[in-house]
Amino acid sequence: MVKFYPPTTDANVDTSKFKRWTYTPYRNGIDIYAPFDGKVYGVDRKKGLIKIKHFFSKDIYTTKFYELGDIYKSNGDTVQRGEIIGKSSSNPFSLEMRLS
After folding, report:
1. What is the pLDDT of residues 21-47, one digit of tens each?
2. DSSP conformation letters of the chain
3. 33 near 6, Cβ under 8 Å?
């Protein structure tokens, strides 16, 4: 079993919405990490959006980060669990995970 790597420990997280968590950073510019190994397939820097596909035996999951302040990855990049993929702004950002 692959363990979930928290996208950050430097924010308050609201898990009240099913499949979409909102993180409120304690300060501006905190590092955001990939929760699992995967491949980046959707980046929109203007919206602060990055999408990553994760491959687990027979299942494929998609992680979407919304409203990031800065994104360090591009479409087609491979990421490792715990790798920095971007930074937050001072505003909240969201994480959504779904079975593809």
Report:
1. 999 999 999 999 999 999 999 999 999
2. -PPPPPS-SSEEEE--STTEEEEEESSTT-EEE-SSSEEEEEEETTTTEEEEEEEETTEEEEEEEES-SEE---TT-EE-TT-EEEE--SS-EEEEEEE-
3. yes
**39 CB neighbour count, 10 Å cutoff:** 15
Give the separation between CA 74 and CA 36, rounded to whole angstroms: 17
Token readout for 77 is 């990049």
pTM of full prediction above 0.85: yes
Are 43 and 4 a contacting pair, CB within 8 Å? no
Distance between CA atoms of residues 44 and 23, nearest Å: 19
